[in-house]
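Task: sequence design from structure.
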């Protein structure tokens, strides 16, 4: 009877240890925390206003942008306070077709 208890207890302990080992190996390793200085030193792409405008146009209406680029009719403009701008333009730059 004692032998059965020892065997069962041993099996339970080994099973518990096995589960703990599996759980520890499946956890992702912690990522190092970056402070503000480290993150600001990473290289970031620098885009001009025109490039950002084209990317925004591509996200909003890719077909319109592709057609106007293919026809060489794409116009990029910078809006000044004294300018008359196309309807719907509220920002400092815009894309339109010529």
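Answer:
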């Amino acid at each position: 009877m004692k032998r059965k208890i020892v065997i069962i207890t041993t099996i339970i302990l080994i099973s518990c240890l096995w589960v703990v080992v599996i759980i520890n190996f499946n956890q992702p390793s912690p990522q190092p925390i970056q402070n503000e200085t480290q993150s600001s030193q990473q290289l970031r792409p620098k885009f001009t206003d025109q490039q950002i405008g084209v990317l925004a146009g591509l996200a909003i209406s890719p077909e319109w942008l592709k057609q106007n680029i293919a026809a060489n009719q794409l116009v990029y403009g910078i809006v000044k306070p004294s300018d008359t701008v196309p309807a719907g333009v509220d920002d400092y730059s815009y894309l339109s077709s010529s």
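Strands lie at 74-78, 93-97.
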